[in-house]
Amino acid sequence: MITARAAATFDPVGRSVATARSFVRDTLQGWGFTDIVDDAVVLTSELVTNAVVHAGTAADVLCLRSEDAVRIEVSDHYPEREIPLQQSAASMGSPDREGGRGLQLCAALATRWGVDYSPTHKQVWFQLDLPDRSVGTRAAGPALPAELLPLTDGRVRVAVVQIDRVGAISAWNEDAEELFGYAAEQVTGKPLTDLAAWPHTPGTSTGIVEALQLSRWEGSYGIRGSDGRVTPVYASHLRVRDADGEPSTVCLLVRDDERAVLQTPLRGPAPEPGALTESHTADPFEVFIGSPAPDDLDGLLQRTVERARDMLDGDAAFLLLATDDETELEVRASTGLPSARQRFARVPVEAGPGRYGSARMPAVHEDLTVVPGAVPLLSGTGMRSVVTVPLKVEGRLTGSLGVAAESPDRYSNEEALRLQFAADRIALAVESARLGELERLRRGSLSFLVEASDLLAGTLDRDQTLALMAQMTVPTLATWCAVYTIADQSSEPYLSYVLHEDEERIDGLKALLSKIAPPDPVPTPGARVWAAPSEAAHQAALRTSMRSLGLGEPMSLGAGIGTTLSTASAVGGETVVLPLVARNRVIGMLTLGKPSDEHFRQEILELAEDLSRRAALALDNARLYSERMAISQSLQRSLLPPGLPQIPGVEVEVIYRAAGEGNEVSGDFYDLFPIRDGAYGFAIGDVCGTGPEAAAVTGLARHALRLLAREGFGGPAVLERLNAAILDEGARSRFLTLLYGELWPQEDGSAVLKIVCAGHPLPLRLRQDGTVEPYAEPQPLLGVMDDLELYEQTMTLDPGDVLLCVTDGVTERREGTRMLGDDGLADVLTTCTGLTAGAVAARIMRAVERFATDAPSDDMAILAMRVPGLQKD
């Protein structure tokens, strides 16, 4: 027989699910059926979700009351959807899949349930039988045998202690005197903290002072009696106002072994340990979280907040995890809140702006407008009432779970106890999953840093190092990255490189960062938040939007609203700056950014800090290498002739190759210079060895040759004095082979040469008829003996003749056991008849390069001079 009914229709929007839960909860509480409210709300939530979210239709909810049961019907307008057959729970699929979970819950929780079809509706109904209880009672337990009732010591005494707004005792009843040995006049006006033995958690400041400020609190602590002994008590605190409106706290205390007198009973009888259901042992964790539980941390946390919200019929729920030192909490999951804005945000627990003071104990805030900032996460969200409970493992704070509602006065101490019961069941699983995730992150971080170090060590190019720094951070660590460099202590930071994971946004991001002042080059290690990019982006987007609406200055042709808004979105989240410090000097800053309203995880920031240290050293090494390369190349270029003079009637071509990466000058050298009118000196030589030491001797030889020749010394005298100068270098001296000559162009088109060949490969003469012959005699090399007796040879180059001078890097070119040699060089030269000096030098060089596949290992110099003869009219 139906004794009452209530009906409502809910639109197909996500918000309707919460509204339907409130409708059912209010209806059943109005009928006085609080014992079945939780089950009814959970089932209604699942069935309405199926209707408005999955089926996409309106949901009709009908509540029917009878004398011994309540029936709730949920109808949607999508009868074609497939409904699983009523089978055993094992064959109905996973409870976490999109469809069918509501029906599985009906099968598990309802006394009876079913599905009815009509041409336009599908109706799922369930019935919950009312428990037998005494009329008018709020909660009742079963009748127990006398031996199972709680024991008391004599008459049960309930101490009633009233605490004023400053924490001092203002009332102390007779039972308190009996329990603790103090007369009322002894303790009145004293702080309760003088008597309370609060079970502090090491390293924390949470105590009874905070507990006395809560609207309700229930739990255990100790009271020091007049004899100095601590009496364990179980207490229930209630925060009230007196007739004058002054707040105070009423504390009811009993001996801890008599806690049954005050302890709030659980909503349902807990199963005995080891008790079996029909198929398996009831696991409290699985009862709350569902089975199977998600195997990843994010999935577990998200399931937790969703179930907590449904359990307390809230509008939102959130879960924060504590850092290792328990000083901060990091937002990891939420529902009903702007999670993208809050995810990975951090709030302090103990002190500082925006602290989360009630994180370490259960707390109920009946109206957040009265205590703004009590739960920083909810600021600006419209939530009015909230209940929060800690997650603890072995007494250590590991997180905080909260449920909030948009209306005030929604929650009481009873909801806090229920939520704490659930938090206690999931705390260990959450901590285990968190530690597993942290271990995976650490292993991945080590692999990332090893790979980054290898890449950074593989280059000494500054620009490539900058590019590698950005490419390693985007998108692995951040959405975008900017690198600022500082040339020296007096220089301002310079924006050197910008990268975004979306290449189309790089130009807009670079333009935005170029318009704002760079971050301060602070050497303090660690990441610090930099708000300037986000503020500048939002201001630019606002100005662009106003111009597009005709409310500001006309928009320039190059600035489109889409580009500006996309740039604002790209840099609208958290931006952090990490200093690049190398050799105790700030050489730049690494800037990392997230898109709109996102925060960095602490593990990511720690990884970025490790990367910044390696990148800074690599960047500084690249800088030092570039500077030294520039110095080296400048010095090397100073050892080369400034340019080849134009010699009337003589073609001249030089090809020079220094062995070794980055070398422009080494042991081989050449020179061609005017001595006086009509006379020119030329030289080609080879210092023993390669590298900077050999290059130093080449500089000595080239400058000495020019100086001595222009002083009027002949070839032998020039080389003898050069030999003495080389020997004067002592341990730094190196022997030197040198071909030196003087050249006089003649009016008949020929050229007269005087040559001294001091241990150098002999020059070759190519005649017009293709014959090749040596053009000098060998003499001792320089830098070995003190007394040299050198002589010069005079000869004439006829018109069309070519004189080829090379260093031993040409003749000693090898391929395995083969060597080009003097004969091979002569063979190549015979093919150069009729060629210009430039063509001859090029053909010789090409032949040398083709002789072997490996890169040359020795310096090479080629000097070709050709007398073309007189041109006929």
From TrEMBL:
Domain PAS: residue ranges: 160-190
Hydrolase is among the record's keywords: yes
SUPFAM superfamilies: GAF domain-like, PP2C-like, PYP-like sensor domain (PAS domain)
Pfam family, one: PAS
Keywords for this protein: Hydrolase
InterPro entries: Bact_Sigma-Reg, GAF, GAF-like_dom_sf, HATPase_C_sf, HATPase_dom, PAS, PAS-like_dom_sf, PAS_fold
NCBIfam families membership: sensory_box (TIGR00229)
Protein name according to UniProt: SpoIIE family protein phosphatase
